[in-house]
């Protein structure tokens, strides 16, 4: 068996991950990082380590269960660390790992895009939802038939 270079091994690994395939692990990762809570947690941690209660206050609308699940999944994927400091009460801090920090430019760009283009999206939604829009009428009829 011939020895392969690091570049050849990376190329092979890249071929093995194709998110368009249902069984690809990259699809699971895409699902995870596209979650709204993941996006908000990663963005909140961009400023540095934070405690659970700080994250809970900063991210409006997140339930305790959802925040806990999100933090655990990000820790499992190596995107954040959980540091427990022995004190009274015990202090737990969450921080992005170097791998998690590589997501920041991407998430920041998507958040910025959403903030910038929300008026246009709202206009498109209003136009689409207008009663005179044939596409919207067809959808409402189909949904009414299912009910």
Shape: extended
| Overall residue-averaged pLDDT value | 88
Low-confidence stretches: none
Computed CA radius of gyration, to the nearest angstrom: 21 Å
Characteristics:
147 residues, three-stranded antiparallel beta sheet, extended, mainly alpha, single chain
Topology:
Blueprint: H1 6-16, H2 25-33, H3 36-44, E1 50-51, H4 52-58, H5 64-76, E2 80-85, E3 91-96, H6 98-101, H7 104-129, H8 134-146
Antiparallel strand pairs: 1-3, 2-3
Summarize the structure.
This protein is mainly alpha-helical. 63% of the residues lie in helices and 10% in strands.
Describe this structure in words.
The chain has eight helices and three strands. With 147 residues, the protein is mainly alpha-helical. A three-stranded antiparallel sheet has the order 1-3-2. It is extended, with a radius of gyration of 21 Å.
């Amino acid at each position: 068996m011939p020895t392969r270079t690091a570049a050849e091994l990376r190329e092979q690994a890249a071929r093995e991950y194709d998110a368009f395939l249902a069984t690809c692990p990259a699809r699971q990762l895409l699902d995870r990082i596209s979650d709204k809570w993941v996006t908000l947690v990663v963005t909140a941690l961009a400023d540095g380590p934070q405690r659970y209660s700080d994250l809970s206050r900063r991210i409006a609308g997140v339930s305790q269960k959802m925040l806990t699940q999100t933090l655990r999944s990000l820790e499992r994927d190596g995107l954040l660390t959980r540091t427990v400091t022995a004190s009274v009460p015990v202090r737990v801090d969450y921080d992005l790992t170097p791998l998690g920090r590589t997501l920041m430019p991407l998430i920041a760009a998507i958040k910025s895009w959403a903030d910038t283009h929300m008026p246009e999206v709202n206009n498109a939604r209003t136009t689409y939802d207008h009663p005179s829009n044939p596409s919207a009428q067809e959808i409402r009829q189909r949904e009414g038939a299912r009910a």
